[in-house]
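Human: I'm a chemist; would you kindly supply sequence and C-alpha cells for a protein?

Assistant:
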Amino acid sequence: MISFGYNVFNDILYKPFLSLKNSHCSNTLNTIIFYYIDFKNIISILQEVFDQLNVLESIHILYCDSLNSDFIQQITKINNPFKLRSLFMKEILHVESLQFLLQKIGDYLENFGFKNRNIEDEYNELKLQLYKLIMKYCTKIRYFDSGIPDNNIYLFIENNQHNINYLTINVDIYHYVFAYNELSSTVLQNLGYVLPSKLEYLCLTLCYRASDLKIFLKDSQHTFIKKLLIQNLMWEYWDEGDKMLLYIKKFIMKNERVKYLSFSELSGLGQISTIYNLAYKEEVVNEFKLHNIIVQDHNDLCITACNFINLPIYDI
C-alpha cells in the first residue's frame, strides 16, 4: 500500500507517482490512497502509470482537488480496470464528466461521501444529480458520509439498504448556521423510516430537539445498530439533555437495540467544548451495561473515512 497525503507538495508529486511504473510496483502494489492532494500536476501521467499497475485492487480518493473533466478523461482512457473503492469529495466540478467516471468504476465503488460545506441550493442540486448517477451505476455502497445533509439522502439510503453498513450524517460543528436547526429536525423526522434492518455504525451530529430524537428512535425500532453515536450541538435547545436520555433509555436500552453507545452534548457558543458526556456518568453507564449496552466516548467509537480505509500515518 502507498498513500499520497496532504503533506506532499504538489510540485514534487510528479516524480514519486511516476516511479510507480517500475517493475517492482507494477506487480506488487495493490492499494493506492490519495488524501487531500491536487491532481493537477499528475493528470498528464495518470493513464501511463495506472496502465502499468497490474495487481492494483483498491484505489481511494479522499477530499482531493482537480477532479475535473481533464482528470476524468485520463481515467476513462486507462486500459486496466480502475478499481476505485472510495470517493470522498470536497466539491462537485462537472457532473456530466463524473458520469463517465462512474460508468467506468461501477460496482467497485463502496465508500462515498462529501466534505461538510455551506448549504447552497445550487450545490444541493449538483448533489442530487450525482446521487442519481451513483444509484444507477454504483450499487454496492457500504460507507456513506452525507456531509451537510439535504433532502436527497433518504432516497439514496433507501436505494442502498441492502449494502449500507456505515452511515454518518453530520452538520458542521465549527460553522453554525441557523438553518441547521430545521435541517436537523428534518433528518430526525425522516431518517428512521429508510434505515436498513441492521447497521454496523450510525453517527448523527445534529442540533437536537428532544421531541425530534423521540420520533427518530421510535421510527427506527426495526433497526439494530452495533455502534450508535448521538452528538447534540447545543446552539438553540438548552436543558433537554435529561429528556433526551429518558428517550434513549426507553427506546434503546430497554429494547437492547445497540451494542455500543455514545451520547454527548457540545456547546456551540464560542469555542466548541463538550458539556455532557454519558461515558463519564458511571451510574448510568452501569445501568446500560445491565442491558448489554457498552457506553463509550464519542472519539473512541467514531469511524471517519480515514479510519475506515485504514489510512496510514505516513505518506509519500
About this structure: The first strand starts at residue 2 and ends at 4. The chain has 13 helices and twelve strands. The two ends are 11 Å apart (CA to CA). The chain has a mean pLDDT of 88.
